[in-house]
Amino acid sequence: MGTKAINKNKRPLVAYFCMEYGLDNDFKTYSGGLGILAGDLLKAAYDAGYPMVAIGILWRQGYTIQTIGENGLPVDSYPEYRYQHLKDTGVTVRVSIKDTEINCKVWLCDCYSNIPLYLLDAFLPDSPEQLITGQLYGWFEEERLAQEIILGVGGVRALDALGICPDLYHFNEGHAVLAGLELMNMEMDGRSDDASRKDKFNAAWANVRQKIVFTTHTPVVAGNESHGYRALFYTGADLGFSKTELRQIGGEPFNMTVAGLRLSRLANAVAELHAETAKIMWSKVKYAADIIPITNGVHNGAWQDGEIAEAAASYLKGGKGVRQLAAKLIWSRHTVLKKQLFDEVYVREGVRLDPDRLTIGFARRAAAYKRSDLIFRNETIIGPLLREGKLQIVFSGKAHPNDQSGKNIVSNLVRIASQYPDSVVFLENYDMKIGALITRGSDLWLNNPVRPQEASGTSGMKAAMNGVLNLSILDGWWPEGCVHGENGWQIGDAYVGEGQDQHDADSLYNALTSEIIPLFYENRDKWIDMMARSVEMSRYKFSAARMLEDYVSRMYMIKP
Predict the structure, then answer these.
(1) 162, 179, 201, 320: which has the fewest C-beta neighbours closer than 10 Å?
(2) pLDDT of residue 1 exceeding 60
């Protein structure tokens, strides 16, 4: 598909749709990386003054609060949240779910230095389905489709009721694709000619497609959401389209990512390697939009410690005397950040970690491909390092409430922590606060997914911005940033194939024992130099500001 730049003097007004937003730790409208990425983009757009609004859902019970029970197993709970900082727009929209009309109130959130975020809320006194907007990613297929009707259909109607006329719609993941179908319905209903249903459908599809761009995140086919047609028609997610028409857009079963690719004029993956993977993965989908790489980024103001950033810049730009002073500032500030993490560990777990010991951070959604326990594969290597005071590890993570395998991963980490009580800790209920503490206070950030199953991995970017050195598989964003031995370390050589787990574990141990541990304890000057280079490598290249600039120049300002 050929593209060209549109009038650069007119920046299109973008309506950004996402299921979740991580704007603040205490505003529980996020579950993890997808939402925090979206929140960071909203802050970057605000910083840049870019014309954008966002659409989401006000989750009254948020994502799960996941604690560890006495038996070592995760326990999920869902308190109800009430927020005083949201503005009442005075707008209510109506959607149809299972032949029932549902009213959704529209709230405005604009208090986190973010562009306007409009949140739909079905938790109303007269609503027959108050809890549809209760739990983020909760319940099962019917509830998920109902939530996506509210996001997509309700979101388009909310914009219309608010008098906002976007030039472009950006769907962040497939959850929002029903907005595309709603836009098609509006196109078809707006025609007064005698054209056939088929002609109206095709024309609406072509016209709407020029107004949509799409971001895909999941590099494994099975991880992309799909629905059977029985569920679509039962919930009303068909929006009046026939099965034949829907099949043209989403295939069978109806795949939300396929629909996103066919409803958009251009799509992006979230790292260069992810783009290669996605193009292969979706190569058999006819009429799909081109997929280009736009690597994710994180918001410096939200995640980077300002003193570390300033000291690292001085270190790399100054003369010898300035560098010596800046090196001392980098290390002293890092020591403070490390203490803040350790203080939180003590409050939560009652464990006093050693501030002089090399500390690894690992905080992730609990998923098998992330291999949280890879470092424990060979106890004869890792055991002595932990028991003899060479190493300590801070873990955190959270499993989806309905994912038993994910909960088993969490339980395994809890068990390992009990096995090494003075050297390994697991912080329950992973959230933005824990994420900030670990990505600032660790010495080393460990990331060992099964290549190429990590789409991007923004936690490592946050760590890098704070001088926390990455030790990572060459997956997601890391192949674009890693200079081995200068700003971090790679695990392995990008090998994919039989025996991959053992290959990667061996490489991890080799880097840890032959390079990282000796450097940390024997050459602090070199370690600090690498910290500064890590900050410099990541501060712009992997920032949300750069990500927004790429979206504007490579997607928003481009038309077929």
Answers:
(1) 320
(2) no
Distance CA 86, CA 98 (A): 29
Task: Count Cβ atoms within 10 A of the Cβ of residue 421 and give its class: 0-12 exposed, 13-18 middle, 19 or more buried.
Answer: exposed
Rounded to 5°, the CA angle 81-84-87 comes to: 115
What's the pTM value of the predicted model, to 2 decimals? 0.96
Question: What are the DSSP calls for 346-389, one per residue?
Answer: HHHH-----TTSEEEEEEEE--GGG-TTGGGS-HHHHHHHHHTT
Query: For residue 19, which of 188, 180, 181, 133 has the smallest C-alpha distance?
Result: 133
> Residue 219: which pLDDT band, with cuts at 50, 70 and 90?
confident
* Residue 424, C-beta contacts closer than 8 angstroms, at least 6 positions apart: 386, 392, 393, 395, 416, 417
- Mapped onto helix, strand or coil, the DSSP state of residue 560 is coil
Average pLDDT (128-142) is 90
Structure tokens at 205: 């599809």
Question: What is the C-alpha to C-alpha distance for residues 462 and 56, in angstroms, rounded to an integer?
Answer: 24
Q: How far is CA 130 from the centre of its chain?
A: 27
Share of residues in the chain with pLDDT > 70 (%): 98
Beta bridge partners of 4: 559
| DSSP summary character for residue 555 | I
When pLDDT is averaged across residues 2-29 and rounded to a whole number, the result is: 81
CB 97 within 8 A of CB 148: no
Compute the mean pLDDT over every residue in the chain, rounded to the nearest whole number. 95
Whether the domain at 4-298+546-559 and the domain at 301-542 fall into the same CATH topology:
yes
Dihedral angle sign, alpha carbons of residues 298, 299, 303, 309: positive
**pLDDT band for position 5 (50/70/90)?**
very low
Annotate 379-434 with DSSP letters as a single string.
HHHHHHHHHTTSEEEEEEEE--TT-HHHHHHHHHHHHHHHHSTTTEEEESS--HHH
User: Is there a contact between 536 and 467 (Cβ–Cβ < 8 Å)?
Assistant: no
Per this entry, what is the length of the chain?
A: 560
Binning pLDDT at 50, 70 and 90, where does residue 139 land? confident
Query: Distance (Å, rounded) from C-alpha 212 to C-alpha 557?
Result: 12
Task: Show me where the domains of the chain are located.
Answer: 4-298+546-559, 301-542
Average pLDDT of the segment spanning 135-155 = 95
CA distance linking residue 207 with residue 211, whole number of Å: 7
CATH architecture of 301-542: 3-Layer(aba) Sandwich (3.40)
**Between 414 and 5, the higher pLDDT residue:** 414
Q: Which pLDDT does position 560 carry in this prediction?
A: 61
Pairwise CA distance, residues 30 & 288, whole Å = 29
Residue 274 in tokens:
């992810």
